[in-house]
Write a structure and sequence with these properties.
This protein has 161 residues and is α/β, with parallel strands linked by helices. It has one domain: Dihydrofolate Reductase, subunit A (3-Layer(aba) Sandwich). The chain contains four helices and ten strands, in the order E-E-H-E-H-E-E-H-E-H-E-E-E-E. The chain has an eight-stranded mixed sheet with strand order 5-4-3-6-1-7-10-9, with helices on both faces. A two-stranded antiparallel sheet has the order 2-8. The longest helix is centred in the first third of the chain and has 11 residues. The two termini are 17 Å apart. Bound molecules: NADP nicotinamide-adenine-dinucleotide phosphate (NAP). NADP nicotinamide-adenine-dinucleotide phosphate binds next to strand 1, strand 2, strand 3, helix 2 and helix 4.
Length: 161
C-alpha cells in the first residue's frame, strides 16, 4: 500500500468548514494544498470536488460518492474510502494518496493515514464540519512552520503517528 496522507486546515476547535465554505481566507494555505498534491492522487468527497473543480488538473482524483454519474471528466468515483484506496492501487494512480476532506472522509481516513499535513489556524471559529481529534494519534512532529496572513496566525504542521 502506498502512503496515505491527510491534508487539512483547521482551527483550534477543529473547525474545517461552515455553511459549505472554509471559514477563513489564507492564500498561502491554498497554494500549499495545490503544490503539495500536484502529481499525486487526491481522494475527496463530492462537495470538495464542487468547491475545487480544477483539482483534476495535474492530479489523479477519486471522488467518494454514491452518484458516480455526475462527475466531471478526469474524476473517478468510488462508493467509500476503502474502495477509493483500492481503486488507486488497481489503476496505479499517481504518487501518494492525499485525502482532502470533507468531514466524514477525514474521520474515516484518520486511523489509516501515515502522515498528516495540518494547517492549524489559531483561534476558535464557528463551524459545521470538523477535523477529527488528531492529538494523541499523530504524535511525531516532522516539521512546524509559522505564518501570518490576513491578520490570522497559523502553523503548517507535518505529523506522523
Ligand atoms: N479546511 C479544510 O481543510 C477543508 C477541506 C475540505 C472541506 N472543507 C469544508 O468542509 C465542507 C465540505 O465537506 P463535507 O463533509 O460537507 O462534504 P464532502 O465530504 O466533500 O461531500 C459530502 C458527500 O461526499 C460523499 N461522501 C463523503 N464522505 C463519504 C464517505 N466517507 N462515504 C461515502 N460517501 C461519502 C457523499 O456523496 P453522495 O451524497 O454523492 O453519495 C456526501 O454527501 C465545506 O464547508 C468545505 O469548505 C474544509
Amino acid at each position: 500500500m502506498r502512503t496515505v496522507n491527510l491534508i487539512a486546515a483547521c482551527s483550534e476547535n477543529r473547525v474545517i468548514g461552515n455553511a459549505g465554505r472554509i471559514p477563513w481566507v489564507l492564500r498561502g494555505d491554498n497554494a500549499f494544498l495545490k503544490r503539495q498534491t500536484l502529481g499525486q492522487t487526491v481522494v475527496c468527497g463530492r462537495r470538495v470536488l464542487a468547491e475545487w473543480p480544477s483539482v483534476t488538473r495535474g492530479r489523479d482524483v477519486v471522488v467518494v460518492t454514491r452518484n458516480a454519474g455526475a462527475l466531471p471528466e478526469g474524476a473517478r468515483a468510488a462508493p467509500d474510502l476503502r474502495a477509493a484506496l483500492a481503486l488507486a492501487e488497481r489503476e496505479a494512480l499517481r504518487g501518494g494518496i492525499y485525502v482532502c476532506g470533507g468531514g466524514r472522509l477525514y474521520a474515516e481516513a484518520l486511523p489509516l493515514a501515515d502522515r498528516l499535513f495540518l494547517t492549524l489556524v489559531k483561534g476558535v471559529f464557528p463551524g459545521d464540519r470538523f477535523f477529527p481529534e488528531w492529538r494523541g494519534v499523530f504524535t511525531r512532529e516532522i516539521s512546524r512552520r509559522r505564518f501570518r496572513e490576513n491578520g490570522l496566525e497559523a502553523e503548517f504542521l507535518v505529523l506522523e503517528r
